## 1
Amino acid sequence: MTTLHQLTVPYFDKTLQNLERWIDKAHDFATAKKFDANTLLSARLAPDQIPLVGQIQIACDNAKFVCARLAGKQAPSHPDTEKTWDELRARIRAVREYVNGFKPADFEGGETRTISLPWVPGKVLSGSDYVLEFALPNYGFHLVTAYSILRHNGVDLGKIDFIGGLPFRDA
Amino acid sequence: MTTLHQLTVPYFDKTLQNLERWIDKAHDFATAKKFDANTLLSARLAPDQIPLVGQIQIACDNAKFVCARLAGKQAPSHPDTEKTWDELRARIRAVREYVNGFKPADFEGGETRTISLPWVPGKVLSGSDYVLEFALPNYGFHLVTAYSILRHNGVDLGKIDFIGGLPFRDA
């Protein structure tokens, strides 16, 4: 059996650290190609898609809101004003610190907690359905989309940069 | 608390159905633009990336192997010979039928089961670590990448096509 805390906090913590390594690689690529790394932030894979900066802002918001909603707390506000990688990195770190502040006890009863989403008025999900059917797939969606935009633009990323380290032990 | 079965089977079942709807939309786009929909299968976002057909084959294999490994069973073989959307659809349906055959009792003890991955000889993961840190993120990775390749090529997909239906109830 897996707790809501196990499903969320360590996963967000690890993948937000992975995301910071993609930023390092984006800078390596920009340095090698002699362009301003911040130009990547407006890149997208389709003209009606949210650009890279927005994909990362949304991923950050997902991680933050999942924890806040499951614990019945008010999440801190981040007004989506980032224009540079440095500012995005600061946001990623702030969100990582925020989610790491949640302890297993904060999510007790979270599975059956009633979750309202501001863009679906009059309807609710259970905490479990929210996490499994919406929040985790949606967080992954924006994370992979950010990765794909960087990859499409030539940044040297591979699967291991996406997955990160794994707790292997000797067979 | 969430069981391994709740984390995997309903999620694979739903997202493989979502994937079939993306195939319908790819055909709608090809019909409107008067091209052979199967040409999309070789599309990719970077020259050293696995093409769309491979992204879908890998997603299918992920779903299949997760269930087989957690239950300590041998997964059926799929030799990656698909060249058309019809063949891919048949594979998606076969995998969906396979994963839906697993019952909660099949995964009992799965959290502590020792999982070996053929590409990491001599090392193992616990069933829990395998699911949470590798298998689910990796499945999502290939699913979103398939979506992104279609989106980048102009197929009319939006977030709701990725997430699918949600079990909302009245507030």
## 2
Amino acid sequence: MRKINIGIIGLGTIGEGLFRIINSQKSSIRKKFNIEINIIKVCDLDYKLAKKLKIEKKLFTNNYNQIVEDPKIDCVVELIGGTTIAKTIADKTLKFNKHFVTANKALIAMHGNTLSRVATKKNLHLMYEASVGGGIPLLNSIKESIIINEIKSFHGILNGTCNYILSLMAEGKEFNSALSEAQKLGFAEADPTLDINGYDTAHKVCVMAQECFGYSPNIKKIHIEGIEKINKIDLDVAKELNCKIKLIGKGKIKGKDLSLSVNPMLLKKDNPLFNVENEFNAVLIDSKNLGPIMKYGYGAGMLPTASAVITDLIRLNTDISSKAMQISKKYNLLNINDSKSRFYIRFFVVNKSGYLAKITSKFAKYKINIEKIIQNPHIANLKKVPVVITTKKSKFSELDKLLSEVHKSGLTSKESIMIPFEE
Amino acid sequence: MRKINIGIIGLGTIGEGLFRIINSQKSSIRKKFNIEINIIKVCDLDYKLAKKLKIEKKLFTNNYNQIVEDPKIDCVVELIGGTTIAKTIADKTLKFNKHFVTANKALIAMHGNTLSRVATKKNLHLMYEASVGGGIPLLNSIKESIIINEIKSFHGILNGTCNYILSLMAEGKEFNSALSEAQKLGFAEADPTLDINGYDTAHKVCVMAQECFGYSPNIKKIHIEGIEKINKIDLDVAKELNCKIKLIGKGKIKGKDLSLSVNPMLLKKDNPLFNVENEFNAVLIDSKNLGPIMKYGYGAGMLPTASAVITDLIRLNTDISSKAMQISKKYNLLNINDSKSRFYIRFFVVNKSGYLAKITSKFAKYKINIEKIIQNPHIANLKKVPVVITTKKSKFSELDKLLSEVHKSGLTSKESIMIPFEE
């Protein structure tokens, strides 16, 4: 029987879930895994949340140093998020020779590589299963089995807030009312900016790139687009095209080239991610021997995420050698401007006669082949008429230029959008 | 660096894949996992397959005792299937104090419990990741993380052959031509009996019951139905009902009651298994903290399955204590006769006037509420007219009685079918 003494820093949603599961399942964890997890101390800004959980005062501190420096504690669980204080806590934890477990994707995205090197040198565990995909057994499963094979790509619906909003919009809701419903149900934060603008997904893409490709990207070099510009009309037209729009975090290798991106994409029916709705997350991983593997489940929430943290705590019992992040590969990170796809483009045209000829002439100028033009006649009496054009395989940068030229022409209002098809 | 010396018994599809992956990825496995896997000896009935793989004669034997008794070998990998010789090999392997890794679901379904007890006592690994779900990281992931939570149910599409046939039939193919296409593509065996009749799925259900519920069922007490009786018409009508028919292996707990079954089911669009097509497998696991988790991928095939075997070999490096099968729970195994569902019932009616009144009167007699009656008028000039009746929630045994009474009446030809809806 191994005993693991932990300190928890941060008693928000995940911290509360962790506290609850450890307390209620201590004996079953002991029985199943031969490990006893003891909570030695918890830290939060004030005693309020700890009081709610009936945590005794002597177990509580508002000074994280009392956890990272406590010689009785083997492992620090950081659940405060962010990359400033959390980074200091991570550094100090390793300095004081303790294992470090976190659910913090931003921290691992930005500093995972450095922290991992320090941890490995000191024979300490750095674990972060909960940072991507919430309760879905994902990162450890990549580390311990899928990585045996050569991973070629991953495609993920990695943000439950965005997926929930897009699901509601596909059923006819407007963006804002979908967002407030997500907030009401607790699937979206009070300030959902980092979810909506794609940055949460981008952090997860960075963590996945580390796990799948052994590559630690600079997040600034990744193309990141959120779902803010998506209109209900886009989901209607997507349906007409037998597609769904999903926010996809993606990584793909071709020889020495690596592409990483976060943006809305049009998925066809045969895509395993097509049916992933509401607050669910899913990741599709393609590798040489295994072919496509998909993992699906709740990507957030108190108990799923806390359960993933416990998975890491239990793994503290195992050999460390194969668990460390292995950043070694040098890839050439491609710029999205050079990528090619079929595209969905939606303009809001200021209703003037002859606009279609003018717009399509731009396509001709940029040598972009049009596949389909879709106008909804029943809304053609609006001042702004939505016009959708789908293209044959085209270069991102050319379409981008075309779009800004059309904008400048005054033919369209500003909210045009281009969405690639995922094939 | 740990060295693991293995002997492989059986050079069929998986054996070949294992040999190929170990040879081609030896150094990357060494680097990633700090383990060196050495093949000391391989065994097959004759040298033919070994010769094809360019295995030197001195590495080859046709006597498995030369592997299980070889003191240089740490771990025996059994890939011959079946429960007779394979069982002897398993027993002897443990007797000679070697770890045992297998892809053999029948063996684990029938003898996993006993073998596991012996292995645990001797501090040896018994591992069988490849036995369910092929290359999908499944059993180890249940053992090492999902099991932290209280698992409430699993639903799986666990046989690629059946799923491939049903997918083709949904596109309009007849059973026999779908089967021969599956055979041509290597998704179905020359003798597909155990796939088609549901027994392969049943073995996997037994293994899953052991992992998820700590319960080792007697396979004879499980309701097992295959896909033989399914007609193309059923898939057509299912489509009209916005459903798909899939062969589902299922386990579900309610208090102290456990139900286990293998049978075709009607899935609705919002079921995550709905979109699992062709040769793909998928398992949906519902647990207390995590909610529904789905895992999806190739459930068979040379490289996916061999890759799962390698996962086990790499895990030999880890602590054994938490890895053993834990059979302890006593459940009351329910009889399917007592289960209740909405049902799809299809009769082939011998075309006589008034048949519908006669059939529906039987429903009245058994107090089974009809939801919908579907007849396809365009095929009503056939001698056997397909009639589909869907029911409200009804007891399995009552419907079963009703069906045999209708048969006896001479109103229908024999191939009636009842398929529960999964909701």
## 3
Amino acid sequence: MPHWTALVAEKKQRQLKSIPQEWLVTPPPPSTLDVTGFPESCGLLNAREIKITNTSVDVLLKKLATAEWTAVEVTTAFSKRAIVAHQLVNCLTEIFIDRALARAAELDDYLKKTGKVVGPLHGLPISLKDQLCIKGLETTMGYVSWIGQYEEKNAVLVDILIECGAVPFVRTNVPQTLMWPETLNSIFGRTTNPYNVSLTPGGSSGGEGALIALKGSPLGVGSDIGGSIRAPSAFCGIYGLRPSYGRVPYCGARNSLEGEDSILSVFGPMSNSLRGLRIFMKAVANSKPWLKDPLAVRKKWDEDEYELADHGSGKYLCFAIMWDDGVVVPHPPIKRSLEITKAALQKAGHKVVDWKPIKHKLLEEIAGNIWNAGSAEDFMITTSSTGEPIISTMELEDAHAMTPSFRPKNDHWNATASETGTGRAVDAIICPAAPFAATPHGKFTRVFLYCNYTTVWNALDYPAAIFPVTTVDPTLDGKKPPHSFYDDFDKDIYEMYDPEKFKNAPVCLQLVGRTLEEEAVIKMTEIVDAALAAAQ
Amino acid sequence: MPHWTALVAEKKQRQLKSIPQEWLVTPPPPSTLDVTGFPESCGLLNAREIKITNTSVDVLLKKLATAEWTAVEVTTAFSKRAIVAHQLVNCLTEIFIDRALARAAELDDYLKKTGKVVGPLHGLPISLKDQLCIKGLETTMGYVSWIGQYEEKNAVLVDILIECGAVPFVRTNVPQTLMWPETLNSIFGRTTNPYNVSLTPGGSSGGEGALIALKGSPLGVGSDIGGSIRAPSAFCGIYGLRPSYGRVPYCGARNSLEGEDSILSVFGPMSNSLRGLRIFMKAVANSKPWLKDPLAVRKKWDEDEYELADHGSGKYLCFAIMWDDGVVVPHPPIKRSLEITKAALQKAGHKVVDWKPIKHKLLEEIAGNIWNAGSAEDFMITTSSTGEPIISTMELEDAHAMTPSFRPKNDHWNATASETGTGRAVDAIICPAAPFAATPHGKFTRVFLYCNYTTVWNALDYPAAIFPVTTVDPTLDGKKPPHSFYDDFDKDIYEMYDPEKFKNAPVCLQLVGRTLEEEAVIKMTEIVDAALAAAQ
């Protein structure tokens, strides 16, 4: 058995070979923190390719369905941009553009011959987190010990996406163990944030977040057990949805903590466009995933629920804003984003009330205990065959507990009916995705790890969507004088804030609904997004 | 702290006081094995009460809604019959007829004043397994250690049933620990089978099975983690449904093995009439249980699915019969019931193919391991406060493993599409509920415990309904010559069979569908039931 570093070197070599050499570019100098402009200025993409990659998912699908753009040219454009993105922020793991182009050509051919699309995602390039197995490829999930394990079949979700006409073309980077909100591992290294490469893109779906922010993919699939779709979506300024357990099939994918059934990881969409989330969820739900994965919930896309049948048809909604969770006070730009959103919703005619947080600390401790129970052993066993080290920040034992599991505080939500004026309980909660924007690399140490603005909803199995609001602006987001700290941890988070360090980081928020109410969560997020656009 | 036997004596004394003294009867002599005729011959119920208690759930609800029968008289009739049943087979735990009659009077009053019913279960008496907490009452679940613990609130399902207009009036007996297919515990003792009191009614919802078989309740709620609704339904000759996880809310009920999330217990209906199952499921699903229990699945009753939209509208179905599971060969009456059902379905124009069992033994071992992992400790901790003994047959450790957990053998079902001739995979599986009819008391020992004809479907989260086919008839069900035994265990089960000992025991079968497909499972069971009736 070679030393683990030799395995890494060989794997990295193969990854490099999977990149068309003519697509290698000279990256900007390291002093360039914001690299978001580079893909369009580097010269690799022509004007049409730039136009294609700047197009939202719904429009892409229309142009593909009418053959105005071919699947081959769309796949080529996104592939080029993805490879540029990778050279900027190190976001990819498996790269299989050759397969993707072959599939794209088949789709073009089918459309030409039949005049019909293969399915609702016909020709759409799609990126996948490095857990979603594809036949004939490895799924290392950042573990050296999994190098060389070639899959014998696709994950169920991959099969479904392909049947819907999507074109998988790259897989994206993750943290070792997946249980970490920064993205680094011993094979592929660290992924950085395109808005400010000194910051993390978040994790664990950090490769997706960074790639999509650079428009190297129109739609990606991440997974979320404690915030792993939402943290990178929020840190990278894109849209992302954490669906309820079982709404998107997990069968046949690789994962950490197999057998931990108390708080489950789920797959969900990440995209530049809010429409992307809806299109993905509708396509997956209507493909009857429950016939292929017995743990998938038998619930088709419900158009009535999307039209907010359970929320007064959406004409007059009551949102509750959670300004802080009673554990950690959010940084100034987060608070400002909540104020912007509140004003926009009121201007649009909706009601906004305050949400009283309940027992977030307890939930965090319980979830931490659940995950810590078997994680050290799980990670140790997985890494033992090659002797690769466990990255020190990922040793969860004794870490500030990462999360929660706890159920019947449902009553608390139901009880809000008395203050909404709609006859219903609060329609949705709007809250931070984290108490901070994207943090500098390495800040998620024992001291600073705090994921409970997202994890609390995993523990309750509430679906939640991320939407962008603003970016960190040192002139608007100056450091505030110290507040009355909840405890030393809250103080540490307060002291971490420095407007200059966080400069230009996207600021996103989270909209939270109730279990299996994905349709309504998406629609209400569309309403908030439109209100924000109208208020600008 | 008094000795545990003193606690039992005091509790039993209180139970006796909760029975109206004028309803005490002289039971038949112990030599009378079949006591099913006694409630109507004992003289306690008048002709109208006998008529009421012999009426199916759908007709009862119609007569209640039109005030042809009052809720008070219906509740009185079932209460009387339940008390007679209890004196025959020892099926009740908590008896609260006074509360029930007070609620029934309120319902009568409401209907009189408004001309409207309170809900879809208006005035229907309903019995509950001794897990479903009711405010102000104890829920001992057969544990001496839980005597004197009075509940502060109702279980969510109890609240929902009451909102729907149902009238809870008694709770029913369970085995200590719930994890056992006979029904006995140190407080209330053993429940017997009304068709043959030398046999078990099954368990763990054995009190429900025995009570409903004697028509002491038109509809009851049992729970099922490995067969606990289906075994007693099958052994007592009634209908029962094991729904998928989360279709019926569990929140606020007592349970064993809390925190074991791999194979979950579910609540479901048991009834004399198949309509009872549908009426219960529809009422519960349409009450939006997910707003009260975040683990309840957001899925309303789907009338399209009930009309078999996913099964060619039910005109021509293909059923697969599993004759044995490859582990234990069923006894002769069970085989005969499968033959009867096959012929009836073919006569009704449906197709019947053979089901090839897959990995039942492995599933059984895995489930056994899951449950055994924490069960000994769970039971020990629960019983330790009073020192009550753990009934020896319930010490699971080293027992023949009780069950399974295992998922993606879904493919096996999908693969049947090639042989059905419908273009679909097999619509449902029909199989035994156990390899035997109701067994003599105490047979579920380390040697004979075999629940995997039911448990396998829990592990896969497939919904399954029990329907009656015939009864054990020594002239038709003579002992067969030995077959080629799978192993010694199979041989032991073979040798247990004696037509005279099992005489008159009901023989039921199980119809199995796919996850969250309760509507279709009920409809297909109606189709099978009608075919059986038509073929007689």
## 4
Amino acid sequence: MNQFRVAILGVTGAVGQEFITLLEERNFPVSELRPLASAKSAGSKIRFRGQDIVIQEAREDSFKDMDIVLSSAGGSVSKRLVPHAVKAGALVVDNTSAFRMDPEVPLVIPEINPEDIALNKGIIANPNCSTIIMLVPLFPLHRVAKIKRIVVSTYQSASGAGAKAMKELEDQTRDILEGRQPRKEVFPHQIAFNLFSHNSAVDAETGYCEEETKMVKETKKIFHDSEIEVFPTTVRVPVMRAHSESIYVELERALSEDEIRKILGKAEGLQIVDDRKANHFPMPIEASGQDDILVGRIRVNKSRPKEIAMFVSGDQIRKGAALNAVQIAERWAGSAAVKTS
Amino acid sequence: MNQFRVAILGVTGAVGQEFITLLEERNFPVSELRPLASAKSAGSKIRFRGQDIVIQEAREDSFKDMDIVLSSAGGSVSKRLVPHAVKAGALVVDNTSAFRMDPEVPLVIPEINPEDIALNKGIIANPNCSTIIMLVPLFPLHRVAKIKRIVVSTYQSASGAGAKAMKELEDQTRDILEGRQPRKEVFPHQIAFNLFSHNSAVDAETGYCEEETKMVKETKKIFHDSEIEVFPTTVRVPVMRAHSESIYVELERALSEDEIRKILGKAEGLQIVDDRKANHFPMPIEASGQDDILVGRIRVNKSRPKEIAMFVSGDQIRKGAALNAVQIAERWAGSAAVKTS
């Protein structure tokens, strides 16, 4: 089997750390690992397959001889460095929003549009976490009954804002329990024992925040369906690392609850957790650390049989970010291996 | 001004405690206060207007000479004791679900259907907290543009399950921060750093939990509109005492965002918190302890101008329970005072 030289851009972040875990767990054919981060972290070490590897500063010339770059160092770093990685000949799977809407860049969820991987010109974009967690369970239904529109409300974890935000949730919670004033550094509002509209900039005209605009635009691109309507309300909740979403969908043709369960039961990347008797449905603590998106509260609106609801939870760092990117790299590597063998 | 002899049934609970605070704060004309609770709490004291008053055991004969009973001791206690309070001549404002759907019992939110108060035959029911917090901001829009349907996802605080549930959220959080296994007593699932579908029984056939069924049925009754459709998804979040709701509404005629703001700006019982530039919208920590429901994220769906969205937060113990009940009692007392003067 072909081996690949893999660079990780932003290796010290929550997603960067998860890249390491996943490459080990999934036995990705890595012949060389090059961990890259800001100058601040350069010189410290990360552990990979029992070896300590020194983190290098991410610079324009950091990508020489790399086959694959897994990138998650923020949009501005990606914009600056990813073109150099491409020029050096690497395939970049970029986890930021920098290139997602670029018509030259495929935006891929492997369970949905793996065929788009082949269209890449050096960059494949990884979708926004909320988009991935919403679309993995919706696509199998879209394929058989065509989704006309989605109304979605999210319950997004701290991890979506990175490792520092997770620490802030923990610190603030401790401060409050011990009677101290909680300090705000990452989030604009207190996250402990609170919730707030997503902390991305809100468009003064439309009232949508950037997180919501991503869900609208990325869904159209991934589904190759410019007609599909998405109306999202994105909310940050005091949960550590899994996002949940309350999803309401209008289909072109009616599906029964049994049909929905049958379709989702056969689908990749998800698991049905829908026990009405035990009141057991998707929960972030059960989704955390899992590869699968958990799907439950499956209901058909009896007075409008073409409309259905579900509640989902998915690990934001895994399927919402690092896992999806590694799965893209695996598919690409599989086809690259075929070509070169 | 007339004075009233007031009994509080379930005085040791979260809502019972808030009744005391509100009667003091709002200067309710109380000539005698009779605190009632289970045998377990009988004999201990509560403080009211600078005096210690001994809690009595709530029994069938506890209501002699009372004018008003504020009741919040759970549905089964209400079913057993409220009829005796009515027989003893008191007006009962009942905060449980025991009588809400009884056609003989008015179900009242004073900002919406105060005229129903006069129809009482001894009992006035206080609606479910999620229903109140949803309907106070929706009714002013319903009056001018008729709401055809509501799709709502809730973010409900621990307080909705009582004082013990709030304690459980605190204890579990502390356990997790200190590396101990969190204990579950009140909620079926871990609430700290987690969320789950509402902890009321789920109907095996429809898939709705009781909390959702309440929102559907109570909305029709309070609005006197059997046609209005409500599709709720109710979720418990690790927040202490204010519920939030992401509300999507279809109107019979289009309203602009400016019109919505104008209508809501003049409405009673709510406050608009909708600062797109500052990313400042309703949050449970700001709604806690407030009488008003906070309303924001007001958006019209550009591709469907009859459809609008908003995000609301309201104190579950205040307007969601105790305050609404006291406001009902105030309105009733006002008209009773007129009649007797």
